[in-house]
Amino acid sequence: MPTEAVAQPLTYNQAMLVLAQAGLEALATSASQHKAKRTPAQESHFLCSWMVESLKEKRFSKLVADDLTQWIRDARSQGAGAQLPDLFSRIVRQYQVATSKTQDLGDALGQLIEAMKALDWLVITDSDIDTKLKLDGQGQSSLIISAKALAGHIANGELIKPISLYLRGDENVLAQQALAQGLIVSQGNKKTSLIKHHKAYILTPNNNLAQLCLLIK
Fold this sequence. Notes:
Helix content: 40-55%
Low-confidence stretches: none
Distance between the termini: 52 Å
Order of helices and strands: HHHHHEEHEEEHE
Mean pLDDT: 92
Shape: elongated
Number of strands: 6
């Protein structure tokens, strides 16, 4: 008898994309059933109710349950200010790229480094980052990646281990330039950064982050 194919579990990226696309589709379907254009507050209310129902019925992977819970809180406390339709649209934009670009990420990081240099950022990739450091850069926007990490976490153009990027400057620029190379990065964390006045961001093999990425504004 032929062997049945075993369904592979969704990655966080895939689960997040499915969720955001479903939310936008539900909103569009609901809007098509009403003649009058909905206000942002009405859209937020609809999506909040939709998310509550989705969470209750476990429509989506448990990988995104915490995100759903947080967005429900945001919608209840902020109303239209939660900007859920815009949030879902931004997620779809970045996660469509992230789920399709899963190879050659080491080469893509190299292209990101060159792109940041072209924007006149101070880019340092020739020093090992093993302990807390302070950079004297006169306030210039900067991107620092450990030379040891670049040498040991990339093989044949592929990212084989997570790698930290230390950034001082507009993180939206980082998110934009990363996406242009097919990359998504984690949200910034100042507490885990080894360089003063910089936040730490993570790139992972196959673009597989375990939490929501840094979204482009």
